[in-house]
Amino acid sequence: MTRILILFILSCFFTPAFSQVKFISSGHIEYEKRMNQYSFYDKEDEESIWIQEQKKVFPKMVSDVYSLDFTENKTVFKLAKENTDNKYVWGRKPSENDLNIHDLKNNTVSIQRDVFEQTYLLKDSMQNYQWKITNETRTIAGFECRKAVTIICDSVYIVAFYTDEIAVSSGPESFGGLPGMILGLAVPRLQVTWFATKVELKEPSEAMLNPKQKGKAVTWGVFSKDLNKAMKDWGKYGSKVTWTFML
Description:
12 strands, 12-stranded mixed beta sheet, alpha+beta, disordered N terminus, 247 residues, 22% helix, 5 helices, outer membrane lipoprotein receptor (LolB), chain A
């Protein structure tokens, strides 16, 4: 009888604490994307007159606001608000037509992406990123996030910070595959970052989760092949452009 009484008292003590632990499965996230436009210039060419003139016209850093609406089964990532004060170097301006849809139930993506004059509609399985989770943490938009790293395109290092308080395995652009939502993302080689500034706990509408898409239907393989073909004569700049579109 005494043993039963002790267990009852312990359950009363711990239940309120456990009831406060909540895992978010739907909502709206806003990210600030910051990009160093000068990172696309080759170091050996930085002293050229053309690049010096470019630097007089275009700012080094530009930033825009992106949004991610999510449920436990689907996420939609897109440009939310372009910064009208920005002046973009050719090819760096974000497209309001770009859409990244993750079907988490079926592990597929549907990505509409403008690549110069061509609009692609990439439908394929989600990328299988080989993440390495570390012990490093930081707080982003009020959530404690853990650092993870991976590599894409054979050599491009990716840093992500995810929170398991949002129980949805997704994030900015095409990234996901971690045990929670990515609230911070960085590509040091391209000097570009996405960091969440706001998380709202609201259910996205059906219209938000099912936007219309269009474009040339491709897979990851065909998309990569097209990019490499188009950029083959562009040197290091072409490689950076390719990496950008493969994010």
